[in-house]
Amino acid sequence: MSLRINDVAPNFTANTTRGEIDFHQWIGDSWAVLFSHPKDFTPVCTTELGYMAKIEPEFKKRNTKIIGLSVDPVDNHERWAKDIEETQGHAPNYPMIGDTDLAVSKLYNMLPAEEGGTSEGRTAATNQTVRSVFVIGPDKKIKLMLTYPMTTGRNFDEILRVLDSMQLTQQHKVATPANWRDGDDVIIAGSVNDEDAKKLFPAGWKTLKPYLRVVKQPGR
Predict the structure, then answer these.
(1) pTM for the whole thing?
(2) Fewest Cβ atoms closer than 10 Å to its Cβ: which of 78, 92, 146, 199?
(3) Is 45 a catalytic residue?
């Protein structure tokens, strides 16, 4: 099953380092970031899990839960967490899914549905497509999907930036331009005509083109 933006994120029950969870129930009224790994004890993923542990408070500020996934067993995750803390200075306190039957990886289209077997005997190379990030809203719909190569560490500061944008544009009729950061000017949504824009943005805006109207970030 292929997944697209605004599809409902497939629900599942899985064993994690924090016990068994029902994914949708675990998300609750929060946003969620699910990020996956092809195998435990791999170098790039070790740095990623440590960095996510470091910036977890930033996700909490944004009402966002984080959860990792690796195809290896939960027992391995627990041992790996010690290496992560030792080398990165931060231990992952968020849950890590053990996807030993590859069920979640296949459900999220990170491995082919017809892929057989379990995690036993598989290498990072055979699982190389299990390197995705999914951002899921409180409505349980997928808001963002990214997949990285194994040799490139993910930029999780970018995930925070995207969260800021998505949460802002959900509340206000605006969009964010290229390389936008929280506090920068934004763009009035194309669905808002000038008459309605006067009510929404009484302080005015700068018109670069009829379709490109720049305004101060709402709430600032």
Answers:
(1) 0.95
(2) 199
(3) yes
